[in-house]
Fold this protein.
Amino acid sequence: MQKAIRLAVGVVFILVGIAGLILPIIPGTIFILLGLLAFSTVYEPVGKLFRVLESRYPHLHKHLERWRKRLFPDAP
């Protein structure tokens, strides 16, 4: 059940992010990152992508971890 909720949240964030890339009033990049963050708790390839991003950009690690814990407190 939790996996389905995470997938649904991820899809919604990705769709809003794509709309944000087209519409100037919605920050698309942030929503796409949040959608990928939701997918990273379900799919291992997306989780690997986030680990690579966190190693390449260490200043983002604390922000991504904070959002991961806030959105999905029971995620691994």
Summary: The mean pLDDT is 82. The two ends are 15 Å apart (CA to CA).
